[in-house]
Known about the structure:
Strand content of chain B: 35-45%
Oligomer: heterodimer
Strand content of chain A: under 5%
Largest sheet of chain A: none
Number of helices of chain A: 9
Shape of chain B: globular
Amino acid sequence: MTELIERARSGDAEAFVRLMELHKQTLWKLARSYFRDEADAEDAVAETVLACWERLDTLRKPAYFKTWLVRVLINNCNDIVRRRRRLLPLDALPEAAEAVEDAHDGLDFEELLGALSPRLRPVLLLYYGEGYKAREIAAILRIPVGTVTSRLKRGRQQLAAYAEKRGIQP
Amino acid sequence: MKHEEQLWYTAFQKEARIPASLEARLGESYAALRRQSQGEEVISMKRNGHRGLKTGLLIAAAVVVLLGAALAIGAHEGFFQSAFGDGVEGQEAYSVPKGGGYTEDYPAVERVAVDTEAAEALLGGYVADSGESVTLCGYTFTVDSYVLDENGIGVVTLDVDNPDGLGLRDAYDAYAGEYTPFYIYVTDPDGRMIDLRELLDASLTTDTHARYACYLTPFDAGSAGRDIKLSLNAANGSFDEEMERELGTGQRLPFYDDATLVLPASEALPAETWSGGGLSAELSPVGLCITGTEPLPSSFGTITLRYADGSEYVARGEGVENLAVSSGSPDGQMVWCAFNRLVDTETVVALEINGAALTPEA
C-alpha cells in the first residue's frame, strides 16, 4: 500500500487508480451514510477521487492515507450539504424493516443504515465498518469524543432494537 | 467480543452495491487522469446536474461591529468567573437507565471558585478583549474576551442576546436531527475544525441573555497561533417543507442564517514541558497538550495534577470529568485537553497521566 501511495504521489495514474479501487467500497458506504439520494453520494465519491488526485501531494504521511481520504470525502459531503442549504444530510432510506425480505440472510449494510438515525450512521460505519477508534472518529468527523461515544451507545441500542424486531438473534 | 457486536461488525463490513452509474463516472475520471498524467488533458469536475441547488434562503446581512481591534488589557473579572469559576455549574455523577438492563453513566463534574485577582496576575496580560459583535435573526452574538495557549488550547466568553427571548426551551431532538435556535462552530483560517464545548454560565443567564464559556482544543497542531473563526448560525424561522413532507409532521428542519466573527491571534500563553512514561506534555494554565512516541491510547483514563500545598486537581478520573473538552489528532500522536479551572503552573509539583509520572524538563 505504501508503495502504491508513493507512486501515486509521484504522479503515477495507474497507482492512483488502483488505490481508489481498493478504497471504493469505503468511500461509497460512507457517502451513503450521509445521503439518502444515490446521486448525491455519487457526486461525493466522484469529486473525492478527483480532489485526491489533485491534492495527493499535500498528504504528509502515507500511513494516514485512508484517514486523509475519508476526511476529503467528508469535506465533500459537507460541501454538498451546504450547497443544498440543508442543515443535515437527511435520509429517507426505505424503512429498515421492509428493506430486506429474507430475514435469514442476517443484516446488510444498507439495511443497517436504514435502522439508524442519520447522524449516527457515519459514526457506526467508521467504527464497525472501517475499524476506527472513537478518538479517531472524533478527529475525522470533527466532533468531541464524548459525542462519538454517546452516538455509538445510541446506535447500538437502535441496532439491537431493530435486530430484535427482525427476529435476528445475536 | 459480545456476539451482538460481531453482528454489527459483519454487517457493516459487507460489500455494498455500487451503482453502475458511479462505476461509469469513475471509469471516465480514471481515463481522464491517465490522459492528464501524460499531459493531454486538464480534468474538470462534473456534478450530477439534475438537481438544482436550493437557493430560496435569504442570508440576513451580518452587521459586524468592531468595538476594538486593539487587544486591550484590563480587568477581566467577568471573563475569569465564567471561564474558570463556578458560574458554570458542576454536576453530580448520575446514571440513566436505558432499558434492557443497560445504564448510561455520566461522570461528576466539579467546578471551583476562581480568585479573580490571582487570575489577573497569572494571565491577565494574555487575555484579549474583543467586543466584536454580529446580529443575526434577532440574536446578537458578542465576543467578550479570550485566551489561548501556545498549543491552541483556550477559552472564549460569548454573550448571546435576543430581546424577544432566546428560545432555548424550543430546542428538541427529532429523527431528522436536533433543533437549536442557534449554534456555533469554530475553525482556523484554513478551515480546520477546532473542537468546541460551550458551557452556559447560569449565574449570568436569563430568558433574553446567555453567557457561554466556549472551550477550544484543536485537532491539528497547525491551528495553534492562528486567528479563530467563529461561525454563528441562527434559525431564521423558515423550515424545509420538502423534508417535512417526506418525513412527516414534527420532523421540521429549520434553515439558519450565518455569519462569521474573526478573532485575531492573541499573545499565546506559554506552556512548560513535562515528560515521562513515553509521554511528553505541554502544561499551561488553561490546558495540556500530550504527545507520545507511540500512538496515544484512545482515552486517557486518569490525569491528575498535584500542587505544592498537597491539594490536587483530578482533571480526569474514574467517574470524574474535569476537563472542559479534549480532542486528538487523526494520526493518534497528539491529544489536547482544556481545563475547567485555572492552573497556576508554578505551583504544580506532580503530573500523572494514566499512572505515568511526568516531571518538568529543565
